[in-house]
Amino acid sequence: MRPMRFSPIRCAALLASSWLAVSLTGCIESSFAKGPDYNQQFCVERDLRRKPDAYTAETARLAFDEECRIGGLDACSALGVMNEVGVGVPVNPKRAVTLYARACRGGNVRGCTNLAAARVEGIGWPRDPLFAARVLGPACDHDDPRACLYLARLHDDGEGTSRDPALAARLFKVACDGEEMAACVALAEHHANDGDFVGSTEFYSKACSLGDEGACRKTTMPLISSR
């Protein structure tokens, strides 16, 4: 595998096609990461995982399939997401992993993150936390919040790397700041376990603002139970 780097191959073409293909509410305003090209892929994949309507999904599939076929690594990664979650195509974990691996080999950071996350979850291939940890570290260093989320989980559990709850908490915070809902929930749970209601509420509220309905309910549960 090549050393990972941010390499937005054919990003201008993907930018044009995916802006037409996918409803990216709020993505233009996103301040996350290192530039509009990287924000673009982050927002596209996030919205695909939220499962857009059938027409949008089919339009996206056609656009990404064409871009991936002619060498667009960011499009290959996005198409992998569609195959993983079953948006615009039937669920196909092995094809998803193949597409992630193609993007990662070309140096696409999010493709590497998706590949590593799949190996953590056992999607398409058996679980391999050790492989995942080796890939997630550089991807997290490239400011990919999903990579930081999965790396935090590995450090929290001591899978594939050293168990380091303090480092895990810092990585969860980086991922939460990057708008990964699950990272915000993890931080809220850590604070709740420590008896820190204020901290717990803060991060449940952040997860709620990002669309986690379960987190929204948990922001009010302690107040209700105290009456």
Report how far the terminal alpha carbons are from each other: 57 Å
| Helical run tally | 12
CATH class of the domain at 11-137: Mainly Alpha
Shape: globular
Give the SSE string: HHHHHHHHHHHH
**Alpha-beta content class:** mainly alpha
Radius of gyration: 18 Å
Q: What is the tally of beta strands?
A: 0
Mean pLDDT: 82
CATH superfamily of the domain at 11-137: Tetratricopeptide repeat domain
According to CATH, the fold-level topology of the domain at 11-137 is Serine Threonine Protein Phosphatase 5, Tetratricopeptide repeat
Helix share bin: 55-70%
What would you say this structure looks like, in words?
The chain is an all-alpha fold. The protein has a domain at 11-137: Serine Threonine Protein Phosphatase 5, Tetratricopeptide repeat, CATH 1.25.40.10. Helix content is 70%, strand content 0%. It is built from twelve helices and no strands. The chain has helices spanning 11-21, 36-49, 54-69, 73-85, 93-105, 109-121, 129-141, 145-157, 165-177, 181-193, 197-209, 213-225. Helix 1 runs antiparallel to helix 3, helix 4 packs antiparallel against helix 5 and helix 9 packs across helix 10. Residues 1-26, 28-38 and 222-227 have low confidence and may be disordered.
Brief characterization of the structure:
The chain has 12 helices and no strands.
How does the SSE layout of this entry go?
Elements: H1 11-21, H2 36-49, H3 54-69, H4 73-85, H5 93-105, H6 109-121, H7 129-141, H8 145-157, H9 165-177, H10 181-193, H11 197-209, H12 213-225
Helix pairs in contact: 1-3, 2-4, 3-4, 4-5, 5-6, 6-7, 7-8, 8-9, 9-10, 10-11, 11-12
